[in-house]
Amino acid sequence: MLYIAARDHVFAVNLTTAGDDFVPQLKLTWRSKDVAKCTVRGRNSDECYNYVKVLVPRNDETLFACGTNAFNPTCRNYKMTTLEQVGEEVVGQARCPFESGQSNLGLFAGGDFYSATMTDFLASDAVIYRSLGDDSPVLRTVKYDSKWLREPHFHHAIEYGNYVYFFLSEIAVEYTTLGKVVFSRVARVCKNDNGGSPRVLERYWTSFLKARLNCSVPGDSFFYFDVLQSLTNVLQINQRPAVVGVFTTQANSIPGSAVCAFYMDDIEKAFNGKFKEQKTSDSAWTPVPEEQVPKPRPGSCAGDGLASAYKSSTTFPDDTLTFIKSYPLMDEAVPSVNDRPCFTRTTSRYCRLTQIAVDTSAGPSKDRTVVFLGSEDGRVLKVLSSTHPNASFGSQLLEDIDVYNPSMCNIQGQEDRRILGMELDKDHHALFVAFTSCVIRVPLSRCTEHGALISVSTNIYISSSHLSDN
């Protein structure tokens, strides 16, 4: 089943029966009762709706949904099979943004809900937050501390091992002399974090660390794609767990996009490396000398590894807690696979790429990696990716498809061609592409449009038997 979050509605689509013109099997209507209050406060009428910004599985039977609710964020539980409400509403603050345009993340891990969003309608307090757990305390990032978060844009969150990872872009604190420069980061917290002592970091994360993601073209002068746009869940690249993301250049730079992959063990290595510090407001950022790092190592999970002697983070020494409060940034960036992007697009006539979906088991032998990239102008690029260091060929652009359908997607004659999301349905051989006002189903193999001359090398999803039939 595919669940689609929308304004005032949630739709459920049966993927088994969905065709090109698919019809939702279930439809939930959830309108705000606070529209009058919203308009009285002087808010734009377009924002005085209930934009469903969180829609995640709570367990095998329940969906957890949160909406902006006309600037009064609210959350509910629904049965997956019927979309009937279960239980009472809960407050959505710190779990859901106030505005539809604000970025946010949400996922359940170990029975706890992890969210990343803005906690106030002025969008001044960004937070990574944990709540709704039966046995875990509510925790958050330190409030109004730019060393922890500085004007972040949240992109993706995953549970992996003992941690929950958050992928985001933010204003780089280490480059303030150059103006507002955006860097992409990966941050992590321990799932068993219970906060600090009553003296330091009580009700705050004790394990929060973050590191830069380096997506760049090497050379005498590196060319950086600093702004993360979209990221996958953990998948296998060269038989190693990895994530793959699409990055762009700075907003005021030459337009360009790149796809970079990152091994999870390289991310772990960065978090086990040196910390970064700025001794005075005028000095450069430098690594913290190892002899100045307290024990147990800041950012460790209680009861594990270097902190195995501590049953709970609440018993960590004040030195460890004070250090992590002041130095959450790692010195070394996470390198990309092969230290370079696996695909780039930098000419000015192309729009930026903003969404990604990856199939690592494509082709007749299920051993090819195909990357689908969504753009700002409603196009999907299908790329045969090469990530092996000894590969004899680079990544190849297989198709460039205009998937935007004006007859379905235009609202009052206006076009909004920016792709907002993509979901790969390998079982039914389709890619679902979300726009502001519609969702388009794109077959992975478009044999009927290309005819019998298609080869397996140019359309990885068409088997040799299928070609001979055509």
Helix share, percent: under 10%
> Please, what is the average pLDDT?
91
Specify the structural class: mainly beta
DSSP E strands, number: 32
How far apart lie the N and C ends? 31 Å
As a percent range, the share of strand residues is: 35-45%
**Strand neighbour order, sheet with most strands:** 12-13-14-15-24
Poorly predicted tracts of residues: 447-459, 462-470
Give the helix tally. Answer: 6
Radius of gyration: 23 Å
The gross shape turns out to be globular
The oligomeric state of the chains shown is single chain
| Largest sheet data | 5 strands, mixed
Give a description of the structure.
The chain is mainly beta and 470 residues long. 8% of the residues lie in helices and 37% in strands. It is built from 6 helices and 32 strands. The strands form 9 sheets. It has a 5-stranded mixed beta sheet. A hairpin with a 4-residue loop joins strand 31 and strand 32. The longest helix is centred in the last third of the chain and has 9 residues, at 318-326. The two termini are 31 Å apart.
Describe, in short, the structure shown.
This protein is mostly beta strands and 470 residues long. It has helices at 35-40, 264-271, 318-326, 406-409, 447-450, 464-469; strands spanning 2-5, 9-13, 26-29, 52-57, 62-67, 74-79, 85-91, 105-109, 112-118, 126-131, 139-140, 153-160, 163-171, 182-190, 209-214, 216-217, 223-224, 227-231, 235-237, 240-248, 257-263, 276-278, 285-287, 334-335, 343-345, 353-362, 368-375, 379-385, 396-402, 421-425, 430-434, 439-443.
